[in-house]
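sorry to bug you again but im stuck and you know this stuff better than me. what follows is a protein written twice so to speak, once as letters and once as structure tokens for the fold. id like you to explain what the token line says about the fold, in plain words if possible. anything you notice is useful, everything is just below.
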Amino acid sequence: QVQLVESGGGLVQPGGSLRLSCATSGFTFRVFPMTWVRQALGKGLEWVSDIHDGGSTSYADSVKGRFTISRDIAKNTLYLQMNNLKPEDTAVYYCVRREGVRFATWGQGTQVTVSS
């Protein structure tokens, strides 16, 4: 079955960096667009970034220039490199397999906490 497993979250000081990974299985990774979304405590879901099946990328304004989405097709893994982290980036981060506009399959999430 389709599985998405995030890792790489943790506690980091403001200005620091983290790289999130999303290991996937059960589907042909290269043909699906993938998305990172996040949810801060007590707030709604926020779209962070997409990578489309052709490899093009897009970012929310709040992370543009600081975050980079990428994928390793050979490893069936999605990444989110996060630099210059801010306290407002604190959230649970989810990777999502897209089916068109539908957010079809979600991972379990990984907590990112940015605090001094």
In short: The mean pLDDT is 96. The CA atoms of residues 17 and 84 lie 6 Å apart. DSSP finds no helices and eleven strands in the chain.
